[in-house]
Design goal:
about 425 residues; alpha/beta; 5-stranded mixed sheet; binds zinc ion
Length: about 425
């Protein structure tokens, strides 16, 4: 014990510090555990920087925590190292001591990811439902997927720390405590109380595009991009905003919903009731329908990909028109927000990279004569699982982008919730 080795300076005039010292030590331990809970696995050097303790003090704290089984060595940082030198061990909470569940409900599929207390993704999967399926169907599909993943990967939710749920449509981030049936927002999807009740864990819910934007900003920018506009082209068109280093929800949860900005006058009817929305031009169903209307009968993403690979002129034209529409709406948003990056995401970008090029060309054109200040337009680095990963990121609450975001699900290192 540190207290036993402590020799009071100044000839013992300082009172014997047993009580105070034990308290300081416990505080240090709590800071270390808190940092590992927030950041996942860290080397001792990184941990020392995060908690602001000297290496020698930290070493004593981590040795004691390891001896008691509170933290473990999970691996080394060899994979992430660029220079030479001995790889450093990475410490983490016992990975089995906590689970975090991320669920992203899209228009036609649900994506689930599970992270452990070391922040490693230990299971993930996707399941589909019909576009018209109601919440009772969607949540059943999601729970079946979670149960299947748990059985296949041996995941237990005995210490579930929180659930992040991404939902389509305008919504402001909010956390519902595990014990609560009192919902703070009238528009809360009925799926939220269901998951609170089923898993007895706190649920953080937000627009799924906002979660995807969060994951993309964190993945691409380390500590997070400071100003970023995220647009996802899928069955629908949605987006998210990072402004001044903060993930923005807006006054009514509508921030980033560029899919329902009007892109053309007298356009096709949108499912929102308006016509000519960006979604009626740049979503996957809209692009497939437009190809068919112009004489290229295709009905799937793969068929579109094949047509683009073969340089089919109709497919190329439709993709260019979609890129132009996205570029105009993105340019208008960029003039208001001045982001450093515009990120285009979604399956469409994978099969039609020319779409991103067209958005970039329009953004540069719209920014002339100040095109040198135009934002960088790039394809997303994350895939369809971005929403579920962003939901988990919000649960960790580790990113500075979440400053000003609703408080995260309360967590305890040894939280034991019913599965
Ligand atoms: Zn619309």
């Amino acid at each position: 014990m540190l207290t036993e080795k402590f020799t009071p300076p100044y000839g013992g005039r300082v009172p014997k510090p047993t009580g105070v010292h034990a308290l300081v030590r416990r505080t240090h331990e709590e800071r270390v555990l808190h940092a590992l809970r927030q950041h996942g696995a860290l080397s001792r050097g990184a941990l020392a920087r995060v908690v602001g303790l000297s290496r020698s003090t930290l070493s004593e704290i981590t040795s004691s925590l390891r001896a008691r089984g509170a933290i473990v060595v999970v691996d080394t940082d060899a994979a992430a190292r660029s220079g030479s030198g001995r790889p450093a061990e990475r410490l983490a909470l016992d990975p089995a001591s906590g689970q975090y569940l991320g669920i992203d409900f899209g228009h036609r599929r649900v994506h689930v990811a599970v992270a452990d207390a070391a922040h490693e993704i230990i299971a993930d999967g996707v399941a589909h439902y019909d576009d018209a399926a109601d919440w009772s169907v969607r949540r059943t599909v999601a729970v079946d997927l979670i149960d299947r993943l748990a059985a296949e990967r041996g995941v237990h939710f005995g210490a579930l720390q929180g659930i992040g749920i991404g939902v389509p449509g305008p919504f402001s981030g909010v956390t519902v405590p595990a014990e609560s049936t009192d919902l703070p927002q009238r528009s809360m999807p009925e799926v939220v109380p269901f998951f609170v009740d089923r898993f007895r864990a706190p649920v953080t819910v937000d627009n799924n595009m906002r979660f995807a934007a969060l994951a993309e900003a964190v993945a691409a920018g380390g500590r997070g991009a400071q100003d970023l506009l995220y647009i996802r082209l899928a069955d629908g068109v949605g987006g998210g905003l990072v402004v001044g280093g903060r993930l923005v929800t807006g006054s009514s949860g509508f921030a980033g919903e560029l899919g329902h900005a009007r892109a053309v006058a007298n356009g096709a009817l949108c499912r929102c009731g308006k016509d000519g929305c960006l979604e009626t031009i740049a979503s996957l169903p809209a692009i497939l329908a437009e190809c068919s209307a112009r004489g290229l009968a295709i009905s799937t993403l793969d068929e579109l990909g094949t047509a683009i690979e073969r340089s089919h002129p109709i497919a190329a034209d439709v993709i260019r028109d979609a890129g132009t529409a996205v570029g105009r709406i993105a340019s208008a948003a960029a003039m208001a927000l001045d982001p450093s990056e515009i990120v285009i995401a979604g399956d469409l970008v994978r099969v039609a990279p020319a779409l991103v090029d067209q958005v970039a060309a329009v953004v540069r054109f719209e920014h002339a004569p100040h095109s040198e200040t135009a934002p960088v337009v790039r394809a997303a680095v994350l895939d369809a699982d971005a929403g579920a990963l962003g939901a988990i990121t919000a649960l960790f609450h580790q990113s500075p982008l979440l400053a000003g975001y609703p408080d995260p699900a309360p967590t305890t290192p040894s939280g034991r919730n019913a599965s």
